[in-house]
Fold this sequence. Notes:
The structure holds two protein chains of two kinds. The termini of chain A are far apart. Chain A has one domain (35-176, 225-316): SGNH hydrolase (Rossmann fold). In chain A, the strands form three sheets. A five-stranded parallel beta sheet of chain A has the order 6-5-7-8-9. Chain A has a two-stranded antiparallel sheet with strand order 1-2. Chain A is α/β, with parallel strands linked by helices. In chain A, helix 1 (2-25) packs across helix 9, helix 3 crosses helix 14 (300-316) and helix 4 (130-139) packs parallel to helix 11 (224-245). In chain A, strand 3 (50-55) and strand 4 (61-66) form a beta hairpin. Helix content of chain A is 44%, strand content 15%. The radius of gyration of chain B is 23 Å and the shape is globular. The longest helix of chain B is centred in the first third of the chain and has 38 residues, at 74-111. Chain B folds into two domains: 6-186, no CATH class; 192-278 and 357-483, no CATH class. Chain B has helices spanning 6-22, 27-43, 50-69, 74-111, 130-145, 155-163, 179-184, 191-224, 231-262, 280-286, 289-300, 310-328, 332-350, 371-392, 396-408, 423-439, 453-469. The two termini of chain B are 16 Å apart. By secondary structure, chain B is mostly helical. Classes of the chains: A alpha/beta, B mainly alpha. The A-B interface holds A 1, 3-4, 7-8, 11, 14-15, 18-19, 22, 57-58, 60, 190-191, 194-196, 198-200, 202-203, 289, 293 and B 5-7, 10, 20-21, 189, 191, 194-195, 198, 419-422, 425, 457, 460-461, 464-465, 468-474.
Amino acid sequence: MKKLILKFALYFILILLALEVLVRVFHLAKDTPSRYVDEFEVEKWKPNQEGFSVTGNRRQNFSEFHINDKGFNSYREFKPTKEGYEIALVGDSFIEGFHQNYYNSIGKKIETIFKDTVSVYEYGYAGYDFADQLHLINKYSRDFENIDLVILGLKFTNDLDRSKYEVMTSRLALESPLNRSLKKIKLLVYLKNIGALNPITKFFSNIKESLLVKRNTNKKEKDSTDHIEDINKKIDNFKSLIDLYGFDKSNYYLLIEENKTPQQFLKYLTDNKFKYIPIGEKLNSSSKNTTLIYDKHWNNNGREIVANEISKVVKKL
Amino acid sequence: MLFNSVDFAVFLPVVFVLYWFVFKNKLKAQNLLILTASYFFYGLWDWRFLFLILASTIVDFFVGIFINKYESKANKAKLWLLVSIIFNLSLLGFFKYYNFFVGSFIEMFQFFGYAIKSTWTLNIILPVGISFYTFQTMSYSLDIYYKRLRPTSNFLNFAAFVSFFPQLVAGPIERASNLLIQIENKRSFNYNQIVSGLKLILWGLFKKLVIADALAPIVDDVFNNYNTYSASTLILGVTLFSFQVYGDFSGYSDIAIGTSKLFGFELMSNFKFPNFSRNVAEYWQRWHISLSTWFRHYIYIPLGGSRKSKLVSIRNISIVFLVSGFWHGANWTFIFWGAFHAVAFIPVFLLGRNAVYKNTVIAQNSYLPSIKEVFQVFVTFAIVTFSRIFFRSESITASFNFIKQIATNFHFENYNHPLGYRMIDYYILILVFVVYEFIIRKDERNPFKFKSKIVRFLIYTVIIFTILLFFDDGVDRSFIYFQF
């Protein structure tokens, strides 16, 4: 028995080490840049980092990122001037674009459409909601004053849960020394990315659930009334964020998947003269996939469509 | 509880430690542990079905005793045998076939113009593995009746035999002469046996998680949308299904045999590389062996086997294949599948080629197969794969439409999965799998039979690495044969 346990442990460790080597050799785990909160309490990536983002078990998507001086993933530095025509794209991971080479981003595609006569600055950061976006614009107002057009990516279901900005401590917890050390184990990062750890976490959460006394037995299921209340609450958050941080209706556009957005909110935007660029129908009607396989972020085709839709609006201005 | 779940990964070491540490050298306690663990294992699906196993166990335990008691009175012994057969087949008949028969009768009447409302069909849940354990308990009574076995007087041992968790839900369908005897005798901790078990578990997991689960979404897409695809895609789909079902079921069997080894038990082999069969008869000597031999021992031979005229033999072969098809499921698709195999088997039988490959394997004395063998394997694989159209389709109409689509839309097109899967990965996977199985073709119980420790270690690593490369958290992980 002793021999069995010892040999099993030895093989287990050796195989883990061999897998770590294989994951590194084939670069199957994504690199994660470090994040921080700057002096304006804006959360972003530490400047001047480089690496590769990987999606899928077998590296189905492999792209390079480059964090610029300002702390955002872009091939260019952000230096807005009064002279040139500049566009800012502000949003979450869809704008951030770790899923595509940084030199082939939505911004770059727009610049190519306009034959490099415009500059596009992509202020994208995974997890940014509307509060993050407006806080950023507000704090970097000196930069944004020089930008001619600002486009804010807005997902109604995710981005309007807060009525004011606060630093997200949960996200920053990912920068804890323990987390940073764990991220150095590429096998672990890989296992997490492909969902191989999900059955284990699910197993423990099931045990936890079955052991805990059912505290939430009175929790009623959401009905249509709750749904309407939820929409109203989000619209209220939208209003208070705008009141708090300001919104230049003449230069600011929202980028919206209108088919995933409640009509009530769309009507509110129209009634109150908020301008938005609808991209949902175009993405939906594409004959080719618009998202990655193991990830719901836009693939090259999706980004192409978004860049085209934005360009159409810019051309009309 | 599935073999490929975290639940099982926790359950198995716990039972293993209790078995070899706490209850070491205590046969009764070990058997009680096996029984308890087995009931726990099965009860996690649905505790109510435990009563069915218990009922089947009680009935056959006493039937065995009474058959033996009336050994000299043939009629009474036969009567007790009938009790076992009627009871077990009634269980199967009610839970598995009731709705099929009612539905078929209604359809038949409707065909002749009589409208019958289908109020007789019931919402019955099929208990997992019912076809397996009922056949196992019946074989016990049959073996006693045919005087191949003495009945046990120990209910605990018999209950452990019926519910033995490694093979409870999908076989191998064991005979009491093999498994019950082992349960009744003391087991000792055998390092080599346990290591061999662990290797089989790893190989079984690979076949299930990589071959079966990775191909499942592609096969599902082809069969769900067959009317939109060309012949080349449909042939690809059914070929991949052949590998999927093989990976799924033989993977399960390997894990079952491997798990049993951890507790000192040796189960019978259930698969012997059927994809390398040189004719349909050899295929049936290599595919789901425990069921094939069950039908051979308890149906084919009692009916007269091939000892009588050719005509009677053909009748017996047809019966066995039709029953085998029906055993798989209450659907005309399975009956057609069985009938198709009967039609494929009979010519081989008539040519006297049904036993020529019984004790040999492809490229028995050489590194590579001959051109003739390659051709034979290819033809056999094509026949078996064609039959899987019936096996996989939802209905008999869908099966024929699938075949019609192949015939009428006969051209090549490049297949692209709707979710954009990189198909080349899967083609390489299958190719490497076939080559590896060819290398290990002579010993199904030792998939890593390489002298060099380094080579073995590299293979373990590559296997686990491949499991990760094809791991898909979103796929349904249950085993195909659980539905039977």
